[in-house]
Design brief:
Layout lengths: L1 E3 L7 E9 L5 E5 L10 E5 L5 E6 L4 E7 L15 H8 L12 E7 L2 E7 L4 E5 L3 E3 L12 H12 L10 H10 L22 E11 L2 E11 L2 E7 L3
Antiparallel strand pairs: 1-2, 1-10, 2-11, 3-4, 4-5, 5-6, 6-7, 7-8, 8-9, 11-12, 12-13
């Protein structure tokens, strides 16, 4: 979820939920790349060393990576991990000739947000207009994605405070959405195993981005794929 401000003097707000195989090891929000990306904070994939979410606060940049189906014909030996995309993005390097599987890469820089998409053949970029947008594993605000069709309007209507715990109305909505079974097509907190994927929702991040600062907060689900009593840690 991204709320793009109407004025460049206002922050961009982001709510991001990570779906991944719980058996794939990862590290919580931290500074995991001191040599190659000093100062960058992110959620690290331990196996490949990349990031699902990354932020460079002084630069006012945030990037969030989502997987997308692709039609790539490259052999697996030539495929590069997607985890480097978010790290490159917050360093100011957007994808040009990806050799990865498909992705949607949300790139936030101050009040400007774009989504870069790759399906294995075609690379595209959509600049988000002011307002609230939802990105999953297909196109931005795609009404054919059941969770977007069900919940985007309600997230767009939520009034976010200017200061303090601005994310509370969105988290309240997220909790309400979790009344659905996590295997439901309209669910946001997800268990994708019945759909043929090993991924489940693991964590929630909220972020506020301005031209010279990024504030990111992180909480993990107590049980993968289920809201059940909330989240570990504190925003």
């Amino acid at each position: 979820m991204v709320r793009v401000p109407a004025s460049p003097s206002l922050p961009t707000r982001v709510l991001a939920i990570r779906d991944e195989d719980p058996e794939r090891p990862w590290s919580p929000l931290g500074r995991w790349w001191p040599e190659s990306h000093g100062g960058v904070v992110g959620v690290r994939d331990i196996r490949a060393g990349g990031a699902w979410l990354a932020a460079d606060s002084p630069a006012g940049r945030l990037a969030v990576l989502l997987n997308r189906a692709d039609v790539s014909t490259l052999p697996e030996s030539q495929i590069v991990t997607r985890g480097g995309l978010a790290l490159d993005s917050v360093a100011g390097r957007t994808p040009v000739h990806p050799r990865t599987h498909g992705f949607n890469l949300v790139e936030v820089e101050g009040s400007r947000t774009s989504v870069v998409s790759w399906d294995g053949e075609r690379l595209s970029r959509v600049k988000l207009t002011p307002g609230t947008h939802m990105v999953a594993h297909d196109d931005v605000d795609d009404p054919s994605t059941p969770r977007i069709e069900r919940w985007l309007e309600e997230f767009a209507a939520a009034e976010l405070p200017d200061t303090g715990s601005w994310w509370t109305p969105w988290i309240d909505l997220l909790e309400r959405s979790a009344a659905l079974a996590s295997t439901d097509d309209e669910a946001i907190i997800r268990d994708n195993r019945p759909h043929g994927y090993p991924t489940q929702s693991l964590l929630v991040c909220v972020a506020s981005v301005t031209t010279d600062a990024v504030e990111v907060h992180y909480r993990a689900l107590r049980e993968p794929g289920h809201w059940d009593g909330g989240l570990d840690g504190s925003f």
